[in-house]
Amino acid sequence: MDIIDHPAGLVVGPGLFRMPADVYHSDPAPEPSLSSSLAKVLVEKSAEHAYAMHPRLGRAPDAEDAESSRAMQTGTAAHRLILGAGAELVVVDADDWRTKAAKEARAAAVTAGKAPVLRLDHATAATLARRVTGRLARVPDCEGFFDAPAEVVGIVRHPSGAWLRAMFDRIEVRRDRIILWDVKTGQQSAAPQDLGRRIEGMAMEVQAALYVDVAERLFPRMSGRVSFRWVFCENEAPNAVTVAEIDAATLHIGRRKLAVALHRWNEARTSDVWPGYPAEIIRPEFPDWAAKRWGEREGEPTLARVNFDLNASPFRPLDWDRAA
Length: 324
Description:
Number of strands: 9
Shape: globular
CATH topology of the largest domain: Lambda Exonuclease, Chain A
Strand content: 15-25%
Largest sheet: 7 strands, mixed
Strand order of the largest sheet: 1-2-5-6-7-8-9
CATH architecture of the largest domain: Alpha-Beta Complex
Helix content: 25-40%
CATH class of the largest domain: Alpha Beta
Number of domains: 3
């Protein structure tokens, strides 16, 4: 597996690359490319939203991302410590970001392309990383995670003409298959019974579909033999871990959504028209589950005396007919 070092600028063609995170997020593909984050926006929002957030299209060159939360900074630090790759951490000796000195240290780190983290949050991240790696080592068939190349960028051109890019947390190339690893830290539960809802709620199946597509185009002999795995980690003690591999049904849905994203992306790129939401009055559909839940409530004893005919209330005044 050949990985090309690419410290800055645009790449000349498809391949696997090592590059700083800010270079990846600035979009180093030969033409403006589609990432999994943009694909999700195209599916869940609109082409207008995708244009506005794309680093080489609608986003102003000097636009700054909103300050990340402490939970996100802890997750970034843990991510760096688990993978041994990514932006260099800068530990700021402060209890929070409210002081002038802390704010200046944070700004300096961001300007230098580094990841600032408070002292206590770094300690939390270090504990999380230690526990995650220890737990992961006990999960069967996860041995290859630790030696697989980390933070590797894949860039390909899709047959539709669109350029795709992906940053693999780890890419493990075995003799007969490829495993793409994605580490997810956060405050959310990593309990197995909660993951289906979490995957759907964050459209993670779109990311998996795009990443698998990129890997299969870079390794055509492995087509149909690329697996995508998440390592879900809880930020809070005891820092539980669940390893989940996407199944065929979920990946199929992800590919269908990716097809929608590609269609909207190519259509907008070709026409240079980036439509937003419909310019018309719409009638939102009330969810079936909510209607069913309310129907069940109407049968409750506490509502037995309610007359749901708004024109036949028992509290109607006697002089109602003379009311204005």
